[in-house]
């Protein structure tokens, strides 16, 4: 019987966390998937449904604009945004994920590169008209999430938009009760993406099509 991909990914993550390497498991998982010994649970073979819905509702025009895809994985979200006309940069900490993205999308208009959200390139600060963060912050231990949130917000240029999609959890659920990854985001964490000049302009919560007991955030922010 094939082992549950979520169980496999959590085991790989736990091995990395036990070595005090909270981000190394991403490469280990993507490498195992490339070898056929694991499946990346969030690699859907298409852009995320909530991102697709946002694009359909907002009809963004990326002409002469830049976009950054955080934790791009194998590239499906980046391809959707690049197809909207954005000059799209997509990064992941896993070299194998980026190699797979290049292989999946050989004629891509997006620029794929290896980078670390917790130590991003300095020239990315306030550099992008659209920043898309899907499931990356929640894949990090709770103690690292505030730093990750801060870096995500700093990518957004003046007048730019940030879109965050994440699993949700109740604010009264204690951190110790979460056996991640993932570590779903509380409403307070979602609100922490907002700053003095980065305003939360839309927040929705909806059930996952695969499991209605799993709720997901879709949050949109605008930088003044």
UniProtKB/TrEMBL annotation:
GO terms for molecular function: methyltransferase activity. Gene3D superfamilies: Vaccinia Virus protein VP39. GO terms for biological process: methylation. PANTHER family: METHYLTRANSFERASE (PTHR43464), UBIQUINONE BIOSYNTHESIS O-METHYLTRANSFERASE, MITOCHONDRIAL (PTHR43464:SF19). Keywords: Methyltransferase, S-adenosyl-L-methionine, Transferase. InterPro entries: Methyltransf_25 (IPR041698), SAM-dependent_MTases_sf (IPR029063), TPMT (IPR008854). This is Class I SAM-dependent methyltransferase. Residues 68-160 form the Methyltransferase domain. It comes from Kribbella speibonae.
